[in-house]
Write a structure and sequence with these properties.
12 helices; 4-stranded antiparallel β-sheet; elongated
Length: about 400
């Protein structure tokens, strides 16, 4: 079949199959002395980036640029010798740049739209052919000859333009939504700094109207009770596949689990069910220092500490405090290479608190902000998934 799964109305007929070597013109123009041209590298994620930003030492690979190659607008550059992080990019935002002599430079003939080719290079089909044409020896390499063998099935120019125009609009939407998400995250970070006091102060920089009292420092052990339980016997089939949800430490941000226990386990142990709204704090290794509010009633194991503050302290406020002060807590209470936590360590955490009404006001503000961040994240993911789906269905 030489027609895509999805197609714009008004276009018919099979697409034409050709090799990239037939559709591209290879460029070997060397650099000439121009003070306005900077050295760039190619990155799969960001396209052309300044070489000084690409290397950690903020320097270019070589001071001698006589053999460097020029890339002008609407041309492509790829590095054939770095296939393990294989890099290719299309120059559309600069008039001209120079790149390392290692790069191969090419441009499209009139029958192949540059932006259409750029989109095709993001598809699974292109990646599959790239791998098939890669030479594997001491170091993987996609040579000039191998690249020319890659096949592309393309429509007529007008349909190519229609397709890349769609993806251009989609990329614009993705970029705008990414910016909105970053703005929300930056806003939250800023408010976290301003709505909580600095280490040396008892008053925050910014407060909601009507609150004036100084904040007081309290240790978690003074204001909350904590508990955790052991993991049920793995070899006892009578304890598993019941109807009691059993949360593991990597699931504390979720509202469901894949593992359920029986009431027999509950009867034969000192365990209890953690109720909704109690704080869950992950204690061990990969997930240690992760914290959230329990979203349902479920059982926990020894890798999770349940924290239940008294009536004068708001659970969600404490969660925000623990998240905000994560790095400070690590450096204050972490000993050696021991990343595991325990109640003996957690109860020493000293946090500053206002009176309960202000705690509730602050957590309600951050909850609203977190909801906006979640919604924006989901919207962005939908757009990215839509783009990926269209890349798979509009190319062959």
């Amino acid at each position: 079949m030489k027609t895509p799964k999805i197609r714009f109305k008004g276009f018919e007929g099979d697409w034409e199959e050709k090799k990239l070597g037939e559709l591209c013109i290879w460029i070997s123009e060397k650099y000439w002395e121009r003070s306005d041209l900077e050295v760039f590298s190619v990155n799969n994620k960001n396209g052309f980036i300044l070489q000084t930003e690409h290397f950690d030492n903020n320097e270019i690979a070589s001071k001698d640029k006589r053999n460097y190659k020029i890339v002008t607008k609407n041309q492509f550059a790829y590095n054939p010798s770095r296939i393990n992080v294989w890099s290719i990019a299309y120059l559309k935002n600069e008039d001209a740049v120079i790149v390392s002599p290692l790069y191969n430079i090419f441009e499209c003939k009139k029958e192949l739209n540059e932006m259409f080719l750029e989109r095709f290079m993001k598809t699974f089909l292109f990646n599959k052919q790239r791998i098939l044409n890669t030479e594997v020896s001491v170091r993987e390499c996609l040579s000039f000859e191998g690249y020319c063998k890659i096949k592309i099935i393309k429509p007529e120019t007008k349909e190519q333009e229609k397709i890349w125009s769609l993806f251009e609009q989609l990329d614009s939407h993705i970029s705008k939504n990414q910016q909105k998400l970053e703005k929300l995250k930056n806003m939250k970070h800023s408010f976290l700094q301003k709505l909580f006091p600095k280490d040396w102060s008892a008053l925050p920089e910014l407060r909601f109207k009507g609150f004036e009292e100084a904040w007081e420092e309290r240790k978690l052990g003074e204001i909350a009770e904590c508990f955790s339980w052991g993991t049920p016997e793995a070899n006892n089939p009578f304890y598993y596949w019941g109807n009691i949800p059993f949360i593991r430490s990597w699931e504390i941000h979720k509202n469901k689990t894949e593992l359920y226990l029986t009431h027999l386990w509950l009867e034969n142990s000192s365990a209890k069910i953690v109720s909704k709204w109690i704080i869950l704090y992950a204690l061990y290794w990969a997930t240690s220092w992760e914290v959230n509010i329990s979203k349902i009633n479920w059982a926990i194991n020894q890798a999770i500490l349940a924290i239940n503050p008294n009536k004068y302290y708001c659970s969600k406020f404490i969660v925000e405090r623990l998240r905000k002060d994560k790095n400070k807590i690590i450096w204050t209470y972490l000993q050696g290479w021991q990343w595991n936590l325990s109640w003996d360590i957690v109860k020493k955490f000293a946090l500053k608190f206002p009176l309960l009404p202000e705690q509730e006001k602050i957590w309600a503000f951050f909850e609203k902000l977190d909801t906006q961040i979640t919604q924006q994240t989901q919207k962005l993911e939908k757009l990215k998934n839509l783009k990926q789906s269209l890349l798979e269905k509009m190319f062959i």
